[in-house]
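Recall that a protein's primary structure is simply its ordered list of amino acids. Everything else, from secondary elements to tertiary packing, is in principle encoded there. The following example makes that idea concrete.
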Amino acid sequence: MASFLDKFADKVNNISNKVVEKTTSSTENIRLSSSIKDEERQINECYIAIGKKYREMFGSNPAPEFAGFISDIEKRETLINGYRSKIQQNKGRVNCTNCGAEIDAAASFCDKCGSKNAFAEQIAREKAEAQAKADAKAQATANADAQAQQNVTEQTQADSTAQDSSAIENNTVKKFCKNCGNEIICGNVFCTNCGTRVDE
């Protein structure tokens, strides 16, 4: 019995040792993988630094095999600057042309260096032009509406005049009793509703 328990204990100890070894090995692998990633990141940063340094030194006259990279970078930087400028415009901000500080686009002068803000004049001019266009459009619409109303009025008057003329020609102008308002049939001398005499 003691021999069996000893063997069982040995097996348990062996299994425990293997588990500990495996756990230790796994932990070590994780640490090593993390170290590898860190070193790779450092290498990539070095490559980026080399690229930046090359551009500083030879960007204006790069070797043919690097010209495409330099050109691509410049195009993307232009796009980025455009995006940033658009974001600033959306926020109502611009960069001072003298000191480069970000200022309110509508401010007449830079609050950092006191230089005149050329953008403020441009913005004021654009606003004035936009307002003038809006006013002109509103006036044109009002004029068109007034003309259309006048046309309708004139047409209504013309139609009414034509109907009156037609009625007179056909001798079918309607008459109404001054006493009860009943329509008087043409030729009747008295109202058939209340007996009041009809004035000719």
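The helical segments are 2-58, 64-91, 118-169. The chain has a mean pLDDT of 84.
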